[in-house]
Write a structure and sequence with these properties.
Length: 304
């Protein structure tokens, strides 16, 4: 497990499970969170941006800048997941209003400033939402983009059915053109698809485990996961998609990785991924030690 802090920028559309992943990163000493950037994704840019500020305030991390990113995808009309995440994106879980204002820089401008100011490879991007901001950075400032260490992405599906239609995962379907650009950029990419994220599941017992911990991060996460169950209380478990990105950063040995060249459909099956013979190799997580990962998540949220 990683113990030395590494600089990260979280690009996100919070979102219930996004919020749990963000709380883990803000609570765990292995993450040196340099900024949070937002994308419309789940519930629209105004709410995702406000939620980023609220999460920072809840954790007493007001000094971390957060910046408003893309309000719409590079292609298509975007998607909305209010039925899952609630009208506020956080399932009605009350968090303090942002204590610091949103950055005067756009997400792309903040990316550029932080990356140019760091050593090449020093900052990783933890991408929890559609890849619009990263694609926009690539198009606007290739020098800054080339300084990214790794891009760890929650998105896509290889063998599993989609959750945005039968073939595609939400983040890929929300902006397939952006995914095409990022996948073809030459960046070092780790992709964590539904094939893995659906295996990391929170049960009511796990929710109680988090609720018994005394940290702010664990308490809020328990409330968020409880809200995740609220739309269907009869469910026995719910997947924790986005925290898998943070868990890979913390403990990559929990995951089984296979290199693949992937094409992103931007036509009749928007966001669907296809393995191809030629193209940049992407490290794709295809297996996970789910119980160890759940332990890692609760341990990280419970750190004091």
């Amino acid at each position: 497990m990683r113990t030395k802090p590494r600089k990260v920028i979280i690009d996100t559309d919070p979102g219930l499970d996004d919020a749990v992943g963000i709380l883990l990163a803000l609570n765990h000493p292995a993450f040196d969170v340099r900024a949070i950037t937002t994308v419309a994704g789940n519930i629209g840019i105004e709410r995702t941006t406000a939620n980023a500020g609220r999460l920072l305030s809840a954790m007493g991390r007001e000094s971390v800048p957060y910046a408003r990113g893309a309000a719409k995808p590079l292609s298509g009309s975007g998607r909305d997941e209010e039925t899952i995440h609630g009208s506020d994106g956080l399932g009605g879980v009350a968090l303090p209003e942002p204590a610091a204002p949103v950055s005067g820089l756009s997400a792309v401008e903040l990316f550029s400033e932080l990356l140019i100011g760091a050593e090449p490879g020093e900052i990783d991007i933890l991408a929890l939402g559609p890849l619009t901001n990263l694609a926009a950075l690539y198009l606007a400032d290739k020098d800054a983009f080339a300084r990214i260490g790794r891009v760890i992405i929650m998105g896509g599906t290889i063998n599993e059915p989609g959750n945005a239609g039968p073939y595609a995962e939400f983040n890929m379907a929300a902006d397939p053109k952006a995914a095409q650009i990022v996948f073809g950029s030459g960046a070092e990419i780790v992709l964590i698809p539904l094939d893995v994220t659906r295996r990391l599941r929170a049960t009511p017992d796990y929710l109680q485990r988090l609720a018994s911990l005394e940290t702010r991060a664990a308490q809020i996460s328990a409330d968020l996961i409880a809200a995740y169950f609220a739309d269907n209380a009869a469910r026995e478990s719910r997947p924790l998609h986005d925290p898998c990105v943070m868990l890979y950063h913390l403990a990559p040995k929990l995951f089984e990785i296979e290199p693949m060249a992937l094409a992103v459909n931007d036509g009749d099956r928007p966001g669907a991924l296809t393995q191809v013979q030629h193209g940049p190799a992407i490290n794709v997580a295809m297996g996970i030690d789910a119980q160890a990962a759940l332990d890692c998540l609760s341990d990280g949220l419970g750190k004091t």
